[in-house]
Amino acid sequence: MSLSVETMSKGDFAAFIGVSAGRVSQYINEGKIYGDALHGEGRSARIRPHVARAQLQKTLEPSQRLGSNGAAARAATLVAEKAAPTVAPNPPPSPAAAPTLNLVPDPVDELAQERLKQQRITTARLQREEALELGRYMLTDAARREMGRAVTEAFKVMDQAIQEMAKTMAAQFGVPQRDAAHALFKVFREVRGKAAARFRDAAGDLPEQIVDDQSIEDEQP
What we know:
The protein is mostly helical. It contains eight helices and two strands; from the N terminus they run ααββαααααα. α1 (about 10-15) packs across α2 (about 20-30), α1 (about 10-15) packs across α4 (about 70-85) and α1 (about 10-15) packs across α5 (about 105-135).
């Protein structure tokens, strides 16, 4: 089945065949979509849907090949409906009244656009789940824990270093090691308190979610 559009984005082609945009990128990297099926290069490359679909029918394993029914066919219908303009028939002008312009929206076209929107949302969700499984994303709570653990380990190293510095100062300047350690720890506690406050503020400012530039580029038409 071909579409009335010549090219489409990776996100729209993913909706067309019923997979995530990340899977489409994988097909391109593996050479299963190639040559005439691509228009442009790199992340901005667009896809000629009828050529790419024919290539996938040949390059995919039998168990992975695209069926003519199901999600792919429904997605293709939605994209085609969106691409083709809907023209409402105009009734012949009545001699008794002036012609009027029909501004009532076409419910069929609105339904097709809503279905395509839902398909894009589903595709984006599948892409995020796939990226999370591959380790591309990190949960904010996990990032806060890792930050706290790293700071704690750094402070432990500093405590040990202060003991060694106090020993060196006691030997070099002839002061009791206990007095040297007390003075050093007093200064370090003040510095550590200020640093800990900055780290807490930085961790609290972390958003629950971040904008992923790669996902935005894949989803743009």
